[in-house]
Amino acid sequence: MYNFDLIIDKYSLPFIAIIETDGGWKDGHYVEPSKQPVEHRGAILPLSDEDRRFDDGGTFTFEDKKIITQANLSKGTHVQTLDDEGEPIEEYEIINKRPYKPYSNFYVYQCKQVNLNDQTQ
């Protein structure tokens, strides 16, 4: 396995992953599903022409991004990019997860931009 830590760290920025937890019964009480913000670091890049060309159905645009990170995230997870003060400025939904992990120590996600109210722009 190749180790890309130095390259990823050099180009990484903080981002927030909104992790959804399942609801259910715990200790005799119902616990509502919730969304927990979890901070991660990763390289947030525009999609290349090749990424857009091989997209099924042509759903990606120039506003969409790819994220290279060591965090293991699920399809459908929303991620927020942050400004210099740590406030969310853009939000994306993970659409595809590229299978790099078996060969290296990172994941590549293709993300579709959505607005901060969960509606596609």
Written overview of the protein:
This protein is mainly beta and 121 residues long. The chain has one domain: Thrombin, subunit H (Beta Barrel), CATH 2.40.10. Helices cover 10% and strands 47% of the residues. It has a six-stranded antiparallel β-barrel. A two-stranded antiparallel sheet has the order 2-3. The longest helix has 7 residues. The protein starts with a helix and ends in a 7-residue tail after the last strand. This is Phage protein.
List the helices and strands and how they pair.
Elements: H1 5-11, E1 13-21, E2 24-26, E3 29-31, E4 34-46, H2 49-53, E5 65-69, E6 78-82, E7 88-98, E8 107-114
Antiparallel strand pairs: 1-4, 1-6, 2-3, 4-5, 5-8, 6-7, 7-8
Organism: Gracilibacillus oryzae
Protein name: Phage protein
Provide the descriptors you would attach to this structure in a database record.
8 strands; 6-stranded antiparallel β-barrel; 121 residues; mainly beta; Thrombin, subunit H; 2 helices; Phage protein; two-stranded antiparallel ribbon
Oligomer: single chain
Shape verdict: globular
- As a percent range, the share of strand residues is over 45%
Strand order of the largest sheet: 1-4-5-8-7-6
Organism: Gracilibacillus oryzae
Protein name: Phage protein
How would you concisely characterize the structure shown here?
It comes from Gracilibacillus oryzae. This protein has 121 residues and is mainly β.
